[in-house]
Amino acid sequence: MHRALYPLLFLVLTLLVTPASPGAEEKPENAEGKTLRVLFIGNSFTARHNLSKIVKQMAEAGNPGLTMEVKTVIYGGRTPRDHWRLGSQNFVKLPTLTAAEVEATIASLEEAVAKDPKDKYASAAITRQKELLAGLESADRTPWDVVVVQSYKDDLNGENSLYAQFVPKFAELIHAQGARVILYVTTPNTQNAEALKEAPDPAPILEKAHATAALANQVKADVAPMALVALKCQTERPDLTLRFINDAHLNQTMAYLTACTLYAALFDKSPEGLPVDSVTDIRYWNDKDKTKDRDGEPITRTFSEKDRADLQRIAWEGYQEFKKLRKE
Questions:
Q1: In angstroms, rounded to a whole number, what is the distance separating the alpha carbons of residues 48 and 40?
Q2: How confident is the model at residue 31 (pLDDT cuts 50, 70, 90)?
Q3: Tell me, what CATH number does 308's domain have?
């Protein structure tokens, strides 16, 4: 080789063996001008506090350059089994959905209403499916990146639970569209309305966590394990309440904790340090005073620096503990 080429060869070899900068390795997968499309399927435990929008705020704050687009399919008090009956899977399949599929869903729902005129959920679903059909040609068919499937009191019987029966149906469709699955596992039965003097019995919560871990491994899903995360919060911060006194739903604190955990599940990284510091509910005092929540407190709760830091840390540590259960 001619000696004049030696400097050029040295430069090429240097570029080949020099490791990427730490910044390149740490760059979030979906950042830098990209869009993350997330569909939430659930009930009021997703609707309250505009939970999906809090997650969006956190996602964009923690990943500069990222735009997160969210859509929700909500039916009050309903579970994935109900959503399947009501045709919510059509929204999962939107990138490939045909008019014939929507028409078949409408026909099935109309038959249900004919049999039971009081089936308000089927009636509501008919309206939603007709709107979907009317806008199908002009609809954005961009595939979802993530679909979040919420549980609600249907996940308490382990592998025999209705959640375990219907999550695989949704997961199959979600994966077929090339999207990720996140299981948002709620815990309405363990949320405390008053400060605790001692932590709850962990046994049933751990049993549920193991069952959820088995389901997540089966369907290749990430998880926001709110029973486990709530238990950790109740153990470390028993002074915090996680539900309203006059309303059985999650309060602003639990909503914030949930959003932090969903952030962890979306990006597999800690929400610690995120600047989002407040939550506003969508239901108010006596359905009249929009400045107060269902307990008569300010409808917007702004968290102190300590509370915000604790909730972010607890969410991340609880999420990490659940990941360890999946390997057992």
A1: 13
A2: low
A3: 3.40.50.1110
Q: Is residue 294 part of a domain?
A: no
Residue 28 predicted with pLDDT over 80 = no
Residue 219 forms part of a structural domain: yes
Mean pLDDT computed over 18-41: 60
Q: Could you give the percent of the chain with pLDDT greater than 70?
A: 90
How many structural domains does the chain have?
1
Inside any domain, residue 75: yes
The answer, yes or no, to whether residue 24 has pLDDT greater than 50, is no
- When pLDDT is cut at 50, 70 and 90, the band that residue 32 belongs to is low
Q: Which domain holds residue 55?
A: 30-97+136-275+302-325
HEC string for the chain: CCHHHHHHHHHHHHHHHCCCCHHHHHCCCCCCCCEEEEEEEECHHHHHHHHHHHHHHHHHHHCCCCEEEEEEEECCCCCHHHHHHCCCHHHHCHHHCCHHHHHHHHHHHHHHHHHCCCCHHHHHHHHHHHHHHHCCCCCCCCCCCEEEEECCCCCCCHHHCHHHHHHHHHHHHHHHCCCEEEEEECCCCCCCCCCCCCCCCCHHHHHHHHHHHHHHHHHCCEEEEHHHHHHHHHHHCCCCCCECCCCCCECHHHHHHHHHHHHHHHHCCCCCCCCCCEEECCCCECCCECCECCCCCECEEECCHHHHHHHHHHHHHHHHHHHHHCCC
* Closest to 58 measured CA to CA, from 173, 203, 224: 224
* Mean pLDDT over each residue of the chain, to the nearest integer: 91
